[in-house]
Specification:
By secondary structure, the protein is an alpha+beta fold. The protein has 8 helices and 9 strands. The strands form 2 sheets. The chain has a 6-stranded antiparallel sheet, with helices on both faces. A 3-stranded antiparallel sheet has the order 1-3-2. Helix 2 (about 35-45) crosses helix 3 (about 50-60) and helix 4 packs antiparallel against helix 8. The longest helix is centred in the N-terminal third of the chain and has 31 residues, at about 75-105. It starts with 15 loop residues before the first helix and ends in a 36-residue tail after the last helix.
Amino acid sequence: MAQVSERGQSSAGTVGSLRRGLEILDMFTAERESIGIGEMALHLDIHKSSASRLASTLAQMGYLRSSSAQGVYRLGARLSALGALASRQLDLVETVLPHLQLLTNLTGETGHLAVLDGPLAKTIAITDGWHTVRMHTYVGKTNFAYCSSMGKALLAACEEEAVREMYPEGSFQPRTDKTIATIDALVENLKWIHDHGYAIDDEELEIGLRCVAAPIYLPDGSVPVSISISGPSQRITPDRIEPVRALVQWAAWQASLALGTTRVPDGVAQPEAERPPLLSWVDPEAIPETPAYR
């Protein structure tokens, strides 16, 4: 067991009392639905009075609840609410991924699923492209949201005040000579992205790389995630962005529909309802087997 100081800070850098509280929650199993103070004290190797205070605090916060027997606790409703929230987040990813995979199959480019992590865009899932020359990335990768298409698609759903707070003066770091360098320029770009329903990274993150992204809408109009595809600029040329955009936005909208969304927020351009045509530069025979086109 980690040694705990008088202030409750363990030598491993964790808060001792919080750690013990979580260890109490971990004691519960399907076969062990009720646990007494004595058992908690024995498990944690602490005095019963300390275990009682920990359990009482957890109960006050809704993580535990008293059972009919004195000094015995069961799991509380707060954990059910958190579990449901975690389950919905997992369901969201599982619902979106097939649409992102289809987009990758149709374009051959690497697909990303991203969330906002403060001022950063964080990749939480990837679908690998099938072109020989393609972008290589990894789950967990982060970049400043203002220089990536998937990040800007997420920022466009935020209030302007929140965006300005994320990026105070002097916080912009140029990745290329095309990277947005001021908050006013970012805000202006985000207004355009919000209205049109998609975002472009035109070599703003890395020279030789272009990306196109679109937001995923929930029924309440919020944007928890965005999808994007990324590829070399010699393949995603300026004149090819429009047909790529159509496919990206269509796939994002299909994912939104699968999540129960019925319409885009007010002021946002309506995505394509029908499947856009295949990209003219992609060999149809090279496209992996997909239910939407084969």
